[in-house]
């Protein structure tokens, strides 16, 4: 069985205070910090790039789970590796050369993740499952925090989990978007073990106890 991991999304934090926000995340004992990179092209929103991640690295020993929502993310593999990213997850919809890009991520020393949007079928992942460390199933359309969880995406989590078993592979299954203390249980039941949460966590003053509510929901 894969270990459950909570990944607070820094997209929902205070951008003017990344160092203290990272310290708050560290206090919660979350396994990852999820870092959303958006280019204003693949998704409408713009966030930040590798230089900001490199600055964050100086303030944190947390596992940096970088989710790139950018066109042709292969252009940034070297800069994210140098910035200190631990996991680099890229969209099948974002490049014509997804297999090669994932190989390059692994060769650069990072863990490689692949992600699909709600409109993309699981079939697109099949040729990639043997080479990835993590599969991310988006449970909202990417670009913004605070959106409603798309229940239908859970069928894809189930399908990927079944394929993992059939093919005797070993990768984490992550969900991202609209995850809270209600939706997290169905994600876990479907087969996910890495749970990204942004607005649900950061809307609370006490991040430690809010993360705890997710852990409790996972144990129900
Ligand atoms: C959305 C991002 C998410 C976002 C999730 O495009 O990939 O990581 O931070 O935010 P919530 O948890 O608020 O849906
Ligand atoms: Zn994300």
TrEMBL record:
Keywords: Carbohydrate metabolism, Cobalt, Isomerase, Manganese, Metal-binding, Zinc. GO terms for biological process: pentose catabolic process; pentose-phosphate shunt. InterPro entries: Aldolase_TIM (IPR013785), Ribul_P_3_epim (IPR026019), Ribul_P_3_epim-like (IPR000056), RibuloseP-bd_barrel (IPR011060). It holds the Pfam family Ribul_P_3_epim. One of its GO terms (molecular function) is D-ribulose-phosphate 3-epimerase activity. It comes from the Bacteria. Its cofactor is Fe(2+); a divalent metal cation; Mn(2+); Zn(2+). SUPFAM superfamilies: Ribulose-phoshate binding barrel. A divalent metal cation binds at residues 34, 36, 67, 176. Substrate binds at residues 9, 67, 143-146, 176-178, 198-199. It is an enzyme of class 5 (isomerase). Pathway: Carbohydrate degradation. Binds 1 divalent metal cation per subunit. One of its GO terms (cellular component) is cytoplasm. It catalyses: D-ribulose 5-phosphate = D-xylulose 5-phosphate. Its EC number is 5.1.3.1. The active site is at residues 36, 176. Catalyzes the reversible epimerization of D-ribulose 5-phosphate to D-xylulose 5-phosphate. Belongs to the ribulose-phosphate 3-epimerase family. This is Ribulose-phosphate 3-epimerase. The lineage of its organism: Bacteria, Bacillati, Bacillota, Bacilli, Lactobacillales. The gene is rpe.
């Amino acid at each position: 069985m894969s270990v459950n991991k909570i990944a607070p999304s820094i997209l929902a934090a205070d951008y003017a205070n990344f160092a203290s926000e990272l310290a708050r995340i560290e206090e919660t004992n979350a396994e990852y910090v999820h870092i959303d990179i958006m280019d204003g092209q693949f998704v409408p929103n713009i966030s930040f790039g590798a230089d900001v991640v490199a600055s964050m690295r100086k303030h944190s020993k947390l596992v940096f789970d970088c989710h790139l929502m950018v066109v042709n993310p292969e252009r940034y593999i070297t800069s994210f590796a140098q910035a200190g990213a631990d996991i680099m997850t890229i969209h099948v919809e974002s490049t014509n050369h997804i297999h090669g890009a994932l190989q390059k991520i692994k060769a650069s020393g990072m863990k490689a993740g692949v992600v699909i949007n709600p409109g993309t079928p699981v079939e697109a992942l099949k040729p990639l499952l043997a080479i990835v460390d993590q599969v991310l199933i988006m449970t909202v359309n990417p670009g913004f925090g605070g959106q409603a969880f798309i229940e239908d995406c859970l069928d894809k989590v189930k399908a990927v989990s079944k394929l993992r078993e059939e093919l005797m592979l070993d990768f984490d299954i992550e969900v991202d978007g609209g995850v809270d203390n209600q939706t997290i249980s169905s994600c876990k039941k479907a087969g996910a073990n890495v749970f990204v949460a942004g607005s649900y966590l950061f809307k609370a003053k006490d991040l430690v106890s809010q993360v705890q509510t997710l852990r409790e929901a996972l144990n129900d």
